[in-house]
Amino acid sequence: MKTTFLMMLFALLWAGSPVKEGYEIGDTAADFKLKNVDGKMVSLADFKDAKGFIVVFDCNTCPYSKAYNERIIALNKKYASLGFPVIAINPNDPTQSRGDSFDEMVKVAKKKGYDFPYLVDESQSVAKSFGATNTPHAFVLTKELKVAYIGAIDDSARKPQEATKHYVEDAVNALLTGKPVTTTKVKAIGCGIKWKNA
Amino acid sequence: MRPLILFFLLCSSSVFSQSVESVKLVDLQKIIQATGDRILVINFWATWCAPCIKEIPYFEKLNAEDKNAEVVLVSMDYDLDPNTDKVNRFVTRKKIKSRVLVLNESDPNSWIDKIDKRWSGALPATLVVNSKTGKRELTQGELGEGELEKLIAKVKNQ
């Protein structure tokens, strides 16, 4: 009887606590369906042969996105063929950041020769469910969409050659070799996602 | 000849007086933790961050009008550009009167949580601290009209 009461109390307390937005390590991400720069809708389920994913919330305008642009392109070049494609998602509200409109995304993808999806998260619901805050903000997922890494791509935004820790590569390499990911969460300075005004 | 040199020296020193302070994390932590009788308002910004620049007038207004508030604008420019010239020029051009610091630290992952665990590292972010009670509020993203006042009211409440 006592335990039932305690359990009920816990349930009440649990229900009363605010719902935390965003995934933690080990959570299973929900798949999504978003429009790509080629106009087609893309879901993670479309990648039948993928062993996992490098999901990067990114945009056209942020200086950090620009600083990491070549590194994101290089991640896909290195890992797509190994089964870990890059999926870039732009969540920014284009009314607040005109350079992040869908048309501008199409231009950037073309100019930079993106060979990975660059999706628009118009409702911002995917960024919210992931708990993305910055651009760029990387999430490494397993084949089963379990979240294995959240955070920065490496530890040197300024100069790629000065990076001593390559967090995303290390996480993907660990998953590819069946080892545990050692560094799972890394914070970085970056541009806040331009959320729509409530 | 000599007055000319003096003139140049004066010019350079007046330019120098505009320059921002370069600080380490420990210096910033001392400012945040100092006890007293004021409301500390720390805004994390950067010269490249458009929403940060848009909200600076709110902090300038508070700095000018509220003697009880201590406003500190902490530039995060160092991470992308360790040269503080850009910050100096910005502060001079915009005639910023609030105290401006540049946080001179690498590897943000090692110190973001030491400023506030809730902070993702995204800019802009604003930390408001009641230096008497230690009560603090962190907001991430651009402040709208009246939001800064609401944050201050929150940390003033017991």
In terms of topology, how is this protein built?
The complex is a heterodimer of chains A (198) and B (158).
Chain A: H1 2-16, E1 34-36, E2 41-42, E3 52-57, H2 63-79, E4 86-90, H3 102-111, E5 118-120, H4 125-130, E6 134-135, E7 137-142, E8 147-151, H5 167-176, E9 185-186, E10 190-192
Parallel strand pairs in A: 3-4, 4-5, 8-9
Antiparallel strand pairs in A: 1-2, 1-5, 3-7, 6-10, 7-8
Chain B: H1 2-17, E1 21-23, H2 25-33, E2 39-45, H3 50-65, E3 69-75, H4 85-93, E4 99-103, H5 112-115, E5 122-123, E6 125-130, E7 136-140, H6 147-156
Could you give a short description of this structure?
The complex is a heterodimer of chains A (198) and B (158). Chain A has 198 residues and is α/β, with parallel strands linked by helices. Chain A has five helices and ten strands.
Quick tags:
heterodimer; A: 198 residues; alpha/beta; Glutaredoxin; eight-stranded mixed β-sheet; two-stranded antiparallel sheet; 19% strand; globular; B: 158 residues; six-stranded mixed β-sheet; 6 helices; 7 strands; 41% helix; 22% strand
